[in-house]
Amino acid sequence: MKIKVSSLKHITILFFVLIFFSQCKDVSKSEKVPSVNVVSDQKKEEKKDTVYSVVINKPEEIEVPKGMVWIPGGEFMQGAVPQDKMAMQHEKPAHKVAVDGFFMDITEVTNAQFSKFVKETEYITVAERAIDWEEMKKQVPAGTPKPHDSILQPGSLTFKKAKTSVPNLFDFSQWWDWTIGANWKHPDGPNSSIKGLENHPVVQICYEDAMAYCNWAGRRLPTEAEWEYAANGGKSGTIFFWGDDMSVLSKNANSWEGEFPVENSKKDGYEKRAPVKSYQPNGYGLYDMAGNVWEWTSDWYNINYYKEQSAALLQKNPKGATEAYNPQNVYIEEKVIKGGSFLCSDSYCASYRISARMGSSTDSSAEHTGFRTVVSVKMLK
Questions:
Q1: Among the listed ranges 5-9, 240-244, 295-299, which one has the minimum average pLDDT value?
Q2: Phi-psi region of 317 (alpha: psi -120 to 50; beta: other; left: phi over 0)
């Protein structure tokens, strides 16, 4: 089956796209299913008789899809835990959430898996498509001059180390390059390759690409609440999936350890992306829910969304904000990405924390962004 690619590429060149990183700041047999009371933002009195059943156990008649694991439904506090001194305001306040059980990929989607999808569908990713300036300029301030045609070529963002210490961690151009020819087959630039890296997570994937894969596979992207609930691994109230101990980070996640973005000690064993399953899984058997590569979710990124949630009222299967909003990226609509990447350090964004979140433009791709998929029970019936 060939997928028709009708949408135009909306990649914004480095000068514009780098605002994608603006939230990553310096951070000083079927058992009886229990019922859960779930209320909206209305007063409790108005909803006191409303009772919903949360799907906890996997239906016996449904087999676990290959490469996935069952995440039992339940309740948790979504958002920053009290003891997390690195938490940002857009992770607060923590609020009560209940999610139905679902199936989730044990690992991030790999190069081998994405290659099979592309081979069967002839899909062309956004980073491989020609750039249309008439479409792209809708995302930048009026009057922005058109970049030279030599720059307006298919490509994506790649990381570069800084040669000396970087006092200003808000100037992202110091470690990001717009690289013509960078895409999922050439994640670090045109001279790079994924040969021999079939078991690495696929990257240089934008939201549209992830959705195309999901449609082909009969799956979907997780909501932010589902992703965060699964990342907990059955625990609750801890900063990381393994607990609160930062000293064991290198044993549990692929991250940046050393002076960012100058020196990476590779204490965790890797400079950049690591093969999936390189580190221990969480309590649900999920790998790389901390570090390695950022993962797309289906929720819009709205900086005010958490502020508008009541810490006392319980939401069931929330789908996040109804629209995107980020005052720093007013021309771009963003989706929430979770999990952090090999570029996250304790001095920069520390996004290997469970509650960490960031917004990413739906048409942005980079060498540290991939995804994993989920399947709801109703999708298999």
A1: 5-9
A2: left
